[in-house]
Amino acid sequence: MSKSLQAIRGMNDILPEQTPAWRYLETTFATLLDGYGYKEIRLPILEFTELFARGIGEGTDVVDKEMYTFLDRNGESLTLRPEGTAGCVRAVLEHGLTGGGQVQKLWYTGPMFRYEKPQKGRYRQFHQIGVEVFNLPGPDIDAELIIMTARLWRQLGIDDAVTLQLNSLGSSEARAAYRDALVDYLKQHFDQLDEDSQRRLTTNPLRILDSKNAQTQALLTDAPTLSDYLDEESRAHFEGLKARLEAAGIEYTINPKLVRGLDYYGRTVFEWVTDKLGAQGTVCAGGRYDGLITQFGGKPTPGVGFAMGVERLVLMLETLNKIPAELSRPMDIYLCTFGEAAELAGLALAEQLRTALPSLRLAVNAGSGSFKSQFKKADKSGAWFALILGEDELAQRQVGLKPLRNDSAQEMVDWDQLSARLHDSLQQQTSAHSESE
Ligand code: ATP
Ligand code: MG
């Protein structure tokens, strides 16, 4: 293949052997969300650049360094969405879904795009499953979101491998006061800050708390802490959240340096982290963003949400060996036909079987071929049984039923008894199979 025909760096193909795990994750999540009364929303991948500049905020890494932005043929600046919240807020405002204080509990999934340095767990096209809730201001809903994700970890069998980190960012006034105190402190140690943090001191100083640089982290030990600046209402909100998590039996760690990368958060922020994935340890992150909707020109509307990284969760399921084996269930039946008349009759027969047994996995041989070659393909398909339809069988309106996974002999079955017979045989096979596991 010529060198130019390759996928873009950091943008992955998800190959057939990987898609079952993805589907598993997506359907587990969708079923869970249904059960809590959340509704799916589907949003465009492209938005006007201004949406993200205004929503996520200039001075954030995402907006300053990571967006895929280009002019379309009409000269409009468009951006491939780097996250889902801004687009979701735009959509609810555009369609009046939050008007009159209406509560919305929404979820979405799909690809996001960020120009980052690709590495394990960090890609340029990646996928998120996100949830956003509007018009519920209290800590009860913050708690519900966390309780819901905790249930997901249990359902996926990875609850032992993730821990919850929690912080409160307070009101915007509290954050502003804290920001001033932090900047004052760090200015005195300007020369000891890493280069990124020096730049952030003027653009987005709270992000310095998040720095991976060891010397900067050491400096931060004696820095003022955000919790000392919390306003009374935010403090009460945070206490309310903690009490609910405790009542639900959910353990957490308070991480006073948890600030989140995007500008719009206030009060509750949280992350679920794991030590199973190396440096890219956050699998789910979210928080409250009561100020975001007014930033878009809407009426004051409380909002809270989270997003989880699908690639990281799939990696975790793989690493911890938690992908259920039955996901890659092979075919049940492989139909071999010999001669044109049998091939035509076989097509009709296969459709009848599919109607009679809707969950049947039935492969019909394509490309004709000798007895030997069709049997080889039947075997490779993983099917429990091969069905054999040649001229003789056709004349007698029968098929040969040949077990492929044991030594039992082939039998002849009448067409009108075939679906009932397959139903019973497959049930026997699968129950014998699950007992032997
Ligand atoms: P990080 O600190 O890892 O860069 P973030 O704070 O930028 O994460 P968010 O914007 O909160 O991440 O996105 C929510 C989740 O989406 C993350 O916790 C992570 O699981 C996932 N995620 C974010 N960026 C990427 C990426 N480039 N590749 C894969 N997953 C990602
Ligand atoms: Mg990031």
From TrEMBL:
A GO molecular function annotation here is: ATP binding
| Reactions that this protein is recorded to catalyse | tRNA(His) + L-histidine + ATP = L-histidyl-tRNA(His) + AMP + diphosphate + H(+)
- Kindly state a single biological-process term from the GO annotations of this entry: histidyl-tRNA aminoacylation
Please give the InterPro entries that the UniProt record associates with this protein.
aa-tRNA-synth_II, aa-tRNA-synth_II/BPL/LPL, Anticodon-bd, Anticodon-bd_dom_sf, His-tRNA-ligase, HisRS-like_core, HisRS/HisZ
Localisation: Cytoplasm
The keyword Transcription is annotated on this UniProt entry:
no
Residue ranges occupied by any Aminoacyl-transfer RNA synthetases class-II family profile domain in the UniProt entry: 1-330
Sorted UniProt keywords: Aminoacyl-tRNA synthetase, ATP-binding, Cytoplasm, Ligase, Nucleotide-binding, Protein biosynthesis
Q: Which CDD domains match?
A: HisRS-like_core (cd00773)
Give the main location: cytoplasm
First-tier enzyme category under EC: ligase
Of the GO CC terms on this record, one is: cytoplasm
Tagged with keyword Disulfide bond: no
Positions that bind L-histidine: 83-85, 114, 128, 132, 260, 264-265
Source species, domain of life: Bacteria
PROSITE patterns named in the record: AA_TRNA_LIGASE_II
Instruction: Supply the EC number(s).
Output: 6.1.1.21
Q: Which HAMAP family match?
A: His_tRNA_synth
Q: Which family does it belong to?
A: Belongs to the class-II aminoacyl-tRNA synthetase family.
Return the PANTHER family for the record: HISTIDINE--TRNA LIGASE, MITOCHONDRIAL-RELATED (PTHR43707:SF1), HISTIDYL-TRNA SYNTHETASE (PTHR43707)
Quaternary arrangement and interactors, per the entry?
Homodimer.
Question: Per its record, how is this protein called by name?
Answer: Histidine--tRNA ligase
Q: What organism does this protein naturally occur in?
A: Pseudomonas luteola
